[in-house]
Amino acid sequence: MRLVLSRDDRIGVLRDGGFVDVSAAFADIRYRTAADRMPRVIATLAERRAQVEELAASSQPEPVPPLQAPVPRPPKLIAAFANYREGANRERQPQDLFLESPDSVIGPGGTVVLPPHQATIFHHEAELALIIGARAKDLPADERALAALAGYSCAIDVSARGLGRMPPSRMGKSFDTFTPLGPAVVTTDEVPDPQALRVQLSVSGELRQDYSTRDMEYSVVEILAFASSYMTLVPGDVILCGTNHQGLGALQDGDAVQMSIERVGELSVTVRDPLRRTWPRGIDEEMAARHRGAHA
Amino acid sequence: MRIAMADGSRIGVIAVDNTFVDIGDLLQPYDPLGPEDLLPDLITHFPELRDTLSHRVATGGGVPLEGVRLRSPVVRPSKIVCLIGNYREGTDRPPQILDFFFKSPEGIVGPGDTVVLPPHPATIFHHEAEIAVIVGREAKSLSADEAMDAVFGYTVFNDVSARGLGRSGINSFLGKSFDTFAAFGPWIVTADEIADPYALHITVEVNGERRQDYWTSDMERPIAELMTAISAVTTLHPGDVICCGTNHQGLGAMQDGDEVVTAISGIGAFTLHVRDEQRRVWPRGIDRQTAERVRAAGLRPSQ
């Protein structure tokens, strides 16, 4: 099942190329904003699954309306540092994660707005996103951890480089609009093997990133186990699994960015830079070489 | 005015006679969905509630503080932002580049609660006493002039920190996001009662032994600048917590059985207990090595 949230705050399921409104299945859930509604909705998804599917099957799909992120402001936004082998034959690095601002999330069709800060470059990082479905602490690093997941989604971890005191810049990933997320929460049953997904990202028609989640250093269940060994995960939390740096490139004013993950979906955003700075187009080969080598 | 949470879901003010006066009834018209909405609602509607609240503070008639269990004054902020090394620490160096990180809001504990050390092989678990700002309104790209208007009040924060975990050289600060590692209280003092936030004395005592002992006058970058820089990156919401950084001269180990009292003059004090199932032992007293390193080089990638 593919659960989405329309910009006019209707909860829907994507089916046969269209959208079916299933808001009625969640009508009893009180909320103030979409930000606090979706974690509550996602928390009930497992137990209401049958009812949601029945609703989704009972009506004719309408054309897909404009969508917002399926979790417009997650309780926590957790991100993996470089978590891919990137074609190198090396021992995997020690596992690590960090927190980004949950206010950085935008949805499909949104606009990434580059801030006036003097970053050396603004990179796109296409990543598999995990959407947490149940409170969880100390999950095991095996299949059982997947029970804590509501599903998967696409995310772009937009990254301003060179800001702050200590590289890599964490601040540079937390700007408002810097985490496009969506279009749907794709439930785990639709993705039999999360370690065999092709991830692609194109900028204005030019393919940049193109990698497989098979190359991850720490798998989805290992990430879930590690994150939950530190902090309680709660419904609606989003964990970004890291990117493969072979294929990063600059984002700049006017760019149209499209990413896709096999079985998970397609996510498109545009980029606006009021300062209209320019960087070389194409892949940042220097960054790619650095990550194949010593690693950050 | 001092604003507190008690017994899990009650919000109140601390009256002149040091009693807890429940004010939940005043917030019902705003239809809170849960205890996490009470403080943001109070902050948002503070101007219209102020007279009524002042009246209650003056008249007293609440429950003696011994009769309530105070909790962390913010139940669930959208984010906890922590400044990285923001004190001169006795040096005359120029201010370092402003930088910050986010700490897990699931780590929140309050007065009388227990910090539980995880089994992870940290080199040490430090206390870091800090003054924290409670954000007073939704704010993005604050100008220097309006930054202090977005401060609702202040509280006492202990940014508990596990050292030596994670990938070397990248500073994830994840060792600060364990559950129970975001300790603060005992209440929020509204900004109008803190005439000079740079004239406050911050202390930590562990089992009666004085460890941290510094003044906010040593802060590198003033609160308005922190608010401006953070809101240039991310939208702030009422009740968000901004920790202004610690002075590392006086950090020390927290270990099983410790009783830790964190205090700021003019705001308040609260006690934490420490539990470590593994009963690891570190030297008592001040961690002179960390103090010396930060004094010599500032807070650099090696932490």
Would you give an account of this structure?
The complex is a heterodimer of chains A (296) and B (303). With 296 residues, chain A is of the alpha+beta class. Chain A is built from three helices and 18 strands. Chain A has helices at residues 34-58, 220-230, 285-292, and strands spanning 2-6, 11-15, 18-21, 67-68, 77-80, 97-100, 105-106, 111-113, 122-123, 126-132, 149-156, 159-160, 179-187, 198-203, 206-212, 238-240, 256-261, 265-272. Chain A is globular, with a radius of gyration of 18 Å. Chain B is of the alpha+beta class. Chain B has helices at residues 24-27, 38-44, 46-59, 223-233, 288-297, and strands at residues 2-6, 10-14, 19-22, 63-64, 70-71, 80-83, 100-103, 108-109, 114-117, 124-126, 129-135, 151-159, 161-163, 182-190, 201-206, 209-215, 241-243, 259-264, 268-276. In chain B, the strands form three sheets. In chain B, strands 1, 2, 3, 4, 5, 6, 7, 8, 11, 12, 14 and 17 form a twelve-stranded mixed beta sheet that branches. Chain B has a five-stranded mixed beta sheet with strand order 9-19-18-15-16, with no helix packed on it. Chain B has a two-stranded antiparallel ribbon with strand order 10-13. In chain B, a hairpin with a 3-residue loop joins strand 18 (259-264) and strand 19. The two termini of chain B are 37 Å apart. The mean pLDDT of chain B is 95.
Key words describing this protein structure:
heterodimer, A: 296 residues, alpha+beta, Fumarylacetoacetate hydrolase, domain 2, 11-stranded mixed sheet, 5-stranded mixed sheet, 3 helices, 15% helix, globular, B: 303 residues, 12-stranded mixed sheet, 5 helices, 19 strands
Q: What would the principal axes of the Cα set say about the shape of chain A?
A: globular
What is the CA-based Rg of chain A, rounded? 18 Å
Assembly form of the protein: heterodimer
**Pair with the biggest interface:** A-B, 39 and 41 residues
- Coarse morphology of chain B: globular
Give the percentage of residues in beta strands of chain A.
25-35%
Please give the share of residues in helix of chain A.
10-25%
Q: How many beta-strand runs of chain B?
A: 19
Largest sheet of chain B: 12 strands, mixed
CATH architecture of the largest domain in chain B: Alpha-Beta Complex
In angstroms, what is the radius of gyration of chain B? 19 Å
**Number of separate structural domains of chain A:** 2
